[in-house]
Design the sequence.
């Protein structure tokens, strides 16, 4: 059972509308419905009568509502108490969720730049895929989110609540083992492509990049069933095919001749998002330092 299921339940009990609650919870209606059903399965009871419009609480739902409210209230009260404790002199921490690749290529250097501007900052980092990063930011467990961005891929966040700063740039590049390229081209016009899992953020961008003029004709030789660019990088290094990867991840390999760029590059922004409703003093200072740091590097 997850806390977000209880929050979903309480939202639906209040609005009595799956569509309105899904919008308020920043998820699709189908995902919201699945989470409500997951809670009912876990409890072993139907909480809503879906045969009425608007939906109504069942007798079990009415009985559970008070308990759910208390669980949620106590959970957040306890988290606030633990987060604000001064015992042991524990300093405040900034919590960041970021795409896997950015935690390897960008975040360590960026944190050092921020610390140079404002002193030491204890940090907590969640490396994840795009969908889970957004979920972690929206549900309030993390202060900041680092992600790649391209104008062709819409961001499913309300811009008034979730503002962003541009904090860096990168490029998506198609790379392959140079020793294998002549062999592939001799065998035909199309080259083997290493593909991200369906729906992944870098997968969407790589499809966009592959459609640019000058990109080679390809066929799908391998699908990686997760969204980690690092996994595709090592497949490319072993000669399995072409991979579209953030340039920061493969710059050293390109310079050393282990990988070769085989298509025009696609520019990307690196963005930092926050929840405007979370206004801790430390977070405000980090946000201001991030804006100042990027201005200095321009």
Sequence:
């Amino acid at each position: 059972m997850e806390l977000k299921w209880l929050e979903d339940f309480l939202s639906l009990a209040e609005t009595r509308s799956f569509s309105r609650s899904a919008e308020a919870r920043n998820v699709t209606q189908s995902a919201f419905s699945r989470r409500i059903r997951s809670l009912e399965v876990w409890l072993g009871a139907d909480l809503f009568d879906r045969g009425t419009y608007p939906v109504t609480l069942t007798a079990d739902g009415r009985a559970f509502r008070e308990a759910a409210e208390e669980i949620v209230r106590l959970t957040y009260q306890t988290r606030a108490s633990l987060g604000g404790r001064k015992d042991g002199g524990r300093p405040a921490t900034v919590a960041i969720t970021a795409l896997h690749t950015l935690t390897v290529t960008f975040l360590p250097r960026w944190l050092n730049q921020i610390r140079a501007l404002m002193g030491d900052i204890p940090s907590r980092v969640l490396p994840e895929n795009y969908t889970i990063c957004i979920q972690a930011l929206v549900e309030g467990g993390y202060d900041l989110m680092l992600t790649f961005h391209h104008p062709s891929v819409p961001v499913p966040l309300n811009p008034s609540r979730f503002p962003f700063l541009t904090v860096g740039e990168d490029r998506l590049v198609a790379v392959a083992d140079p020793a294998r390229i002549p062999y592939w081209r001799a065998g035909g016009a199309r080259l083997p492509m290493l593909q991200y899992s369906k729906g992944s953020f870098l997968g969407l961008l790589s499809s966009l990049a592959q459609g640019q003029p000058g990109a080679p004709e390809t066929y799908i030789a391998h699908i990686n069933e997760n969204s980690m660019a690092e996994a595709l990088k090592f497949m490319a290094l072993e000669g399995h095919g072409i991979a579209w990867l953030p340039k920061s991840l493969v710059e050293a390999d390109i310079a050393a001749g282990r990988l070769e760029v085989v298509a025009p590059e696609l520019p990307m922004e690196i963005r930092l998002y926050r929840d405007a409703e979370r206004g801790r003093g430390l977070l405000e200072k980090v946000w201001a330092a991030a804006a100042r740091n990027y201005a200095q590097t321009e």
Notes: The chain is about 45% helix and 20% strand.
